[in-house]
Write a structure and sequence with these properties.
Elements (H helix, E strand, L loop, with lengths): L2 H24 L10 H7 L7 H5 L4 E4 L13 H11 L5 H15 L4 E5 L2 H17 L16 E5 L7 H5 L4 E5 L2 H7 L4 E7 L9 H10 L4 E4 L9 H8 L3 E5 L11 E5 L1 H9 L16 H14 L4 H19 L6 E5 L9 E5 L2 H4 L3 H10 L3 E4 L8 E4 L5 E5 L7 H14 L4
Parallel strand pairs: 1-11, 3-4, 3-5, 5-6, 6-7
Antiparallel strand pairs: 2-8, 7-8, 9-10, 10-13
Bound molecules: pyridoxal-5'-phosphate.
Pyridoxal-5'-phosphate binds next to α6.
C-alpha cells in the first residue's frame, strides 16, 4: 500500500472513531427536565444540548396542530437519527438530490420527486419548471424576462390564497376563472400551468374536471396538497390521478424537518424544478436551499411514514382527545363535539362549546391563560374565533388539536383546561 493510501486509511479510521464518539455522545445521559422528561427520554438527549433553555425560549405544548408559527411537527426518533448521521459526512449535493428524488419517487409511486425547502418552495420550483418547459429558456431568465414570455397561470377565484406569492415570484401572471366555461376560455398560447388548491372550501370546478380540461390543452397542472396527509395514500393518490406536479409540506403530518417539502410528479418537470433550485446560483430557487440533513431527514420521514398506519395514528389522536374530554365534560353548560376536516388536517379537532357568562371566562381568555402558564400550552388558533373552522368554531368555543402532542401532553392539557374553566378567577 502506498504512503498516500495508508494515510488515507488512517484519516478515515480517525474520522470513523470521531463520528462514532459523536453518535455515542448523542445516545448518552438522558435529560430529565420536568415536563420534557418523556420526550427527552425517547430521544436520549443530554442536558448540555438544551439551547432553548440557554436562549430562554419557552418549550410549548402543542395543542393546536401543524402550524408553521408553532414550528409544526417534531421529527420521530428514527428521522432525527438519520439527520444526525447525515450531518457527520459531506457529500456532493446534486448526487444527494438526484438519489433522494429517485428513492422517494419509487416509494411514493410517481415518476419524479424533488426534496424542496417546503411546500411553498415546491410551488415556486414547480412554477419555474413550467415556465422553463413552455418557453425553452434557461433558469436565469426567471423572473426578469418572464413578463414578455408565456407566463399565464390559471386559478379558480376561490383558490386564490396567500401562497399565490410562491408562484408570483417567478414573474407569472395569474388568470382567475369562476365557471367551467371561463376556464375553458382562459387557455391561451401563453398559458404555462394551472394551480389547484386541494383544501379550498369552494370553487365550482372539481379536481378531476380541472385536470381533464388542462390536459386537453396540453397544460401541466400543479396541485397544492401541502397539509393533505393523512391519509397516507394521498401521497400517491393525486399524482396517480394524473396531476403533473403535487406539493406536500415535509414538516406537517409527514413529520420530516420543518424546512423540507416534496415536489412529486412528472420526471421531466421535477428535473426542471431541480435546475431552478439551489445549488444553482443564478436561479429563483437559490435561496430555497435544502441542506443534506434536511434532504436525508425528508427521505427518512417518508420511510417512517410508510411504516405507520392511519388507523393506529387516528386511534392515538382519539385516545388523547378522550383523555381531555374526560377532564372537562362536567364544566357547566359544556357541549363537546369532534370535527374532522375532510381534506387538510384530516384529524380530530376537539370542539369545547360553553356559555362564557355561566363559566366566567371566554375562550380567548382561556387561550391567554394557558399561554401564560408553565408549561405554556398553545390551543388551536380557531379558539374563540369565527370562520377559521367554518361553522365549527365561534367566540364560544375552545378548539384543541391533539395530533402534535407528545407523550403526557394530553393529561397536562386536560388538567390545565379543567383548572381554568372550573376556577376562572383563581
Ligand atoms: C402549509 C402550507 C403551505 C406551505 O408549506 P411549507 O412546507 O411551510 O412551505 C402551502 N400551502 C398550503 C395549503 C399549506 O397549508
Amino acid at each position: 500500500m502506498s504512503s498516500i493510501g495508508s494515510q488515507g486509511l488512517f484519516t478515515r479510521r480517525r474520522f470513523l472513531s470521531w463520528s462514532q464518539a459523536a453518535l455515542a455522545a448523542l445516545g448518552s445521559k438522558p435529560l430529565f427536565a420536568s415536563t420534557s422528561e418523556p420526550v427527552a427520554a425517547a430521544y436520549s438527549v443530554s442536558s448540555t444540548d438544551d439551547y432553548y433553555a440557554k436562549l430562554g425560549v419557552e418549550k410549548i405544548i402543542n395543542a393546536a396542530g401543524t402550524y408553521t408559527y408553532l414550528t409544526a411537527a417534531t421529527m420521530p426518533p428514527q428521522v432525527l437519527r438519520a439527520v444526525t448521521q447525515a450531518a457527520l459526512h459531506p457529500v456532493v449535493l446534486k448526487d444527494l438530490q438526484r438519489a433522494s428524488g429517485e428513492y422517494i419517487a419509487k416509494r411514493l409511486r410517481c415518476e419524479g420527486a424533488l426534496v424542496t425547502s417546503g411546500a411553498s418552495a415546491a410551488l415556486t420550483l414547480g412554477t419555474a419548471a413550467c415556465i422553463v418547459s413552455a418557453n425553452g429558456i434557461a433558469p436565469n431568465q426567471i423572473p426578469e424576462a418572464v413578463g414578455a414570455m408565456k407566463n399565464e397561470v390559471i386559478v379558480q377565484k376561490a383558490h386564490r390564497y396567500e401562497y399565490d406569492h410562491a408562484m408570483l415570484l417567478c414573474g407569472v401572471r395569474i388568470v382567475e376563472v369562476v365557471t367551467l366555461d371561463d376556464y375553458r376560455q382562459a387557455f391561451t398560447p401563453k398559458t404555462i400551468m394551472t394551480n389547484f388548491f386541494n383544501a379550498a372550501e369552494s370553487g365550482e370546478i372539481d379536481r378531476q374536471t380541472w385536470l381533464a380540461v388542462a390536459h386537453q390543452h396540453n397544460v401541466p397542472c400543479h396541485m397544492d396538497a401541502a397539509a393533505d396527509m393523512p391519509p397516507i395514500e394521498n401521497l400517491w393518490k393525486y399524482t396517480g390521478m394524473g396531476y403533473d406536479l403535487v406539493s406536500f409540506s415535509g414538516g406537517k403530518g409527514i413529520r420530516g424537518p420543518q424546512n423540507a417539502g416534496l415536489l412529486l410528479g412528472k420526471k421531466h418537470l421535477t428535473d426542471l424544478a431541480a435546475l431552478n433550485d439551489s445549488p444553482n446560483s443564478d436561479a429563483v430557487g437559490r435561496g430555497m436551499k435544502v441542506a443534506k440533513e434536511q434532504i436525508v431527514g425528508m427521505v427518512a420521514a417518508v420511510d417512517w411514514l410508510l411504516e405507520q398506519s392511519d388507523e393506529t395514528n387516528q386511534a392515538e389522536y382519539m385516545r388523547r382527545t378522550n383523555t381531555i374530554i374526560r377532564m372537562v365534560k362536567d364544566v357547566p353548560t359544556m357541549k363537546i363535539d369532534i370535527f374532522m376536516p375532510e381534506i387538510a388536517n384530516h384529524v380530530p379537532h376537539l370542539i369545547l362549546a360553553y356559555d362564557p357568562k355561566v363559566v366566567g371566562i371566554t375562550p380567548k381568555e382561556v387561550q391567554e391563560r394557558l399561554r401564560s402558564q408553565r408549561p405554556q400550552i398553545e390551543l388551536n388558533p380557531a379558539t374563540g374565533s369565527t370562520g377559521r373552522l367554518g361553522p365549527h368554531s365561534n367566540e364560544n368555543t375552545i378548539v384543541v388539536g391533539t395530533w402534535m402532542m407528545q407523550p403526557g401532553d394530553a393529561e397536562v392539557v386536560g388538567r390545565q383546561l379543567r383548572s381554568v374553566l372550573m376556577n376562572p378567577h383563581s
